[in-house]
Structures are given as C-alpha cells and as structure tokens.
Amino acid sequence: MLTVKILLILKQKHMTAKVRNMTSSSSGNPVANQFVIYTDEGTYFQSYKSVIAFRDNERKITLDEYYWDYSRTTGKYRNEFLGEHIAKTRDKIESGEYKLADLN
Fold first, then answer.
1. How does pLDDT run across 15-58, given as a tens digit for each residue?
2. Per DSSP, what are the bridge partners of residue 51?
C-alpha cells in the first residue's frame, strides 16, 4: 500500500507524518480512500493508492503526471485539496505554475 510505503520512507529519514481522511463537505464524515498526508516537507493528497498532488512548505504544487486527472472522484477531492476548479488547475499547469512529475 502506497501510504505505508510513504510512512516507511519518512521513518527512515526520521521525519514525522500524520495521515487524515478527507471529510465530506455535505456530511462532515470521513471519506474513504481520500487522504491528506502531512509531512515535514509539505502536504500530499492521496486518492486510493495513488499520490495525486504535493504542496511543499513554500506552497508550490506538484501534480502526478498520470493520476492528477484520473477520475471524477479523484478530481472532486483534488479540487478540494487545491481549493480550485479544474479549469484553474489546467491554466496553472499550462503556465508552468504547477509542475507535473511522477509522484508514484
């Protein structure tokens, strides 16, 4: 499982991490398979077993080049994590403000 892999890497580097389920905006309940991972280096958004986005401590965003726009559910929670709609995200990728990389 990718979350376990990330936590093992962090432990080896003597870093701390906290994992939390995202919460539903309508019910306030935790959402299954949608995670925010807080680390010393920044914050990750993981959907199911794939890291979708990383926001470093300087608020710079890196999106996974393959999974960033993988499904409707991933997109819904990616938008929530980034605080914007997909059109804005696409604009920021096009302008170079957001980087694409292999996060998995």
1. 677 899 999 888 889 999 999 999 999 999 999 999 999 999 99
2. 46
